[in-house]
Amino acid sequence: MLYALILAGGKGTRLYPLSRRENPKQFLKIVNNKSFLRNTVDRIKTLVSKDNIYVITNENYITRIYEELPDIRKENIFTEPENKETATCIGLSAVKLLKRDNDATMIVLPSDHYIEDEKEFIDTLNQGIEIVDKKRGLVTIGVEPTRPETGYGYIQMGDKVLNYESIYKVERFLEKPNIEVAKDLLSRGNYLWNSGMFIWRADTYLREMNKYLPKMYKGMMEIYEAVGTESEHEIINERYSTMEGISVDFGIMQKTRKGYVVKSNFDWDDLGNFSSLSRFLKGCEGKNTASDNVFLEDTENCSIFGDKNLIICFGVKDLIVVDAGNVVLIMDKNRDQELKHLVEELKNEKEIEEYL
């Protein structure tokens, strides 16, 4: 049977201070009047029944998830005791789904994507599901790049799968490149953005985990045995404390020989940093983008986020300005990928902990 798994446990530190410890990015309402998480659930409902939509999150966010998704059954909300990257949370979800259904096929979706043309989105997923059924592969969704983007990973397309117009073997994955490499990849024409969306059978995913992450697999199998028993929660906590967290890209997708990519045709954006969010602000003179209540004078190539206080920019360029109430961020626009590391440093400053 077909299931959707939505990843909603991240802290969204690259969107700080809009995204905070108590209000991470999956709950933000920026693009429209619905949260990123709500939009993701609504988008997949046309393909997967709501009874088969699952969410994996951190234990700290469970109450917020219940409030945000009252139509999703509480038993469909999986929790992790701590964040251990995507290979781990997907593995935990896979063993739980497998316990319920030996034929479980998972559509794995991050909770912070913007997608237009939802019909094309569903059509693309259906192509991936077909390949999963026929090839027992690990399928990812690739997006044709429209600019030399340094904030996304890339997928090199290999041989086209016979009888399919838009499905290819994965040749290799590349991590986020610098601008010169990104320009080169764009010019080659055989690289796609790595969207972070996946489709696979739960048992296939776990078999590949056994090949490439055997220690993690061993822990997951111990969790599998405990699912549905009184010791389930205790075993999950114990095994998680010993697991080394790793992303699914690093841990499995870059190594597997079963990788396929579906080249998509829908408009897509990963709303993971301020550069991506700025594309949803209104355009202004001087290559600026801004929210409401902003006054710009002699300002160039800046992105300004705010909703209450008047923000005035005068004689500046190449900045990101974020007014988030009790925190104001002013940052070099070219360094937004470093914000995550800055937030980690801020955690060491006890006097500002309340602002995180």
Describe this structure in words.
The structure is a single chain. With 356 residues, this protein is α/β, with parallel strands linked by helices. Helix content is 32%, strand content 26%. The chain has 11 helices and 18 strands. A 5-stranded mixed barrel has the order 6-9-7-8-10. Strands 12-13-15-17-18 form a 5-stranded mixed β-sheet, with no helix packed on it. Strand 2 (53-58), helix 2 and strand 3 form a beta-alpha-beta unit. Helix 3 (85-100) packs across helix 6 (202-212), helix 6 packs across helix 7 and helix 7 packs antiparallel against helix 8 (232-242). The longest helix has 18 residues, at 118-135. The model has no long low-confidence stretch (mean pLDDT 93). This is Mannose-1-phosphate guanylyltransferase. It holds the Pfam family ManC_GMP_beta-helix. Keywords: Nucleotidyltransferase, Transferase. GO terms for molecular function: nucleotidyltransferase activity.
